[in-house]
Write a structure and sequence with these properties.
CATH class: Alpha Beta
Order of helices and strands: EHEHEHEHEHEHEHHH
Largest sheet: 7 strands, parallel
CATH topology: Rossmann fold
CATH architecture: 3-Layer(aba) Sandwich
Number of helices: 9
CATH superfamily: NAD(P)-binding Rossmann-like Domain
Shape: globular
């Protein structure tokens, strides 16, 4: 029987989650802890991280983390291993999604997205693999987006960062073959969180809950799978679109109103999030 043909329960596994103070990260921490994993969440908003850990209970630990700084990420993983144990699973969840037409996007906003959404995931993946590969076990879960498989007006830089996460994960997967270390890339549709607030809905693709993404992440860890779509119906949809010529793909996007989701957000609903995403307020927002 192959290593991947049996379920690997997460009970007693050490799970580190970036951007774990809210949204998808917090929901994922809650579900891992509920299933008996030992969980550490990292977030730049340390006060909110501590409050979230206290709320989750079950021994969840909150630690400071700035995913854009190697020294901070190294210190985070070292603290996890010192206080909880060797990291079995790293969930690279931290990310931001400020929206605007590309032509009016401020350069510093583009750089901030790349620093957090791309360099943060690259750093986390490298540092986790340094620990996992010598042990011959471990699992890195990178949170991308359905935007990592297409181009959506209104979020050009965000789409670029999520394409980067998909490409990074694809290449790392090939490098990790035979090492005993797994990697998954998770691609949700719009999630019912602050990051996904104020967005119009796409026809035929429901808004998912953070708990739906958390359950999909755990399923991919228990029975390793590389591509994880949430909802699962996105997988066949993207495969169909990939098989079509560009005019067909663009027609489907228009029919489903997928080309409207990031292009026409409600600015009043998203105002507080957009300020945090831009770094105007203290505390780095996280994916989901």
């Amino acid at each position: 029987m192959s290593r991947h043909s049996r379920t690997r329960p997460v009970v007693n596994q050490v799970v580190a989650i970036t951007g774990g103070a809210r949204g998808i990260g917090k929901a994922t921490a809650a579900e891992f802890a509920r299933r008996g994993a030992r969980v550490a969440i990292g977030d730049i908003d340390t006060e909110l991280g501590r409050a979230s850990a206290a709320e989750l209970g079950r021994g969840v630990v909150a630690l400071a983390l700035d995913v854009t700084e190697r020294s901070s990420f190294e210190a985070f993983l070292e603290q996890v291993e010192d206080t909880v144990g060797p990291v079995d699973v790293l969930v690279n969840n931290a990310g931001i999604m400020p929206l605007s037409p590309l032509v009016s996007e401020r350069d510093e906003i583009a750089r901030r997205q790349v620093d957090i959404n791309v360099h943060g995931v690259i750093l986390g993946t490298k540092l986790a693999l340094e620990r996992m590969v010598p042990r011959g076990r471990g699992h890195v879960v990178n949170i991308a987006s359905a935007a990592g498989k297409g181009g959506f007006p209104g979020g050009a830089t965000y789409c670029a960062t999520k394409h980067a996460v998909v490409g990074l994960s694809e290449a790392a997967r090939a490098e990790l073959r035979g090492t005993g270390v797994d990697i998954s890339v998770v691609m949700p549709a719009v999630v019912n969180t602050e990051l996904g607030s104020g967005l119009p809905h796409s026809r035929g693709v429901k808004v998912v809950e953070p708990s739906d993404v958390a359950e999909a992440i755990i399923a991919a860890v228990e029975r390793p799978r590389f591509e994880v779509y949430v909802p699962r119906s996105l997988g066949p949809l993207f495969k169909l679109m990939a098989a079509l010529p560009r005019p067909g793909r663009e027609l489907i996007a228009r029919v489903l109103k997928g080309d409207q989701v990031l292009a026409h957000p409600d600015p009043a609903v998203r105002a507080a999030y957009e300020r945090r995403a831009a770094g105007v307020e203290e505390g780095e927002p996280v994916a989901g």
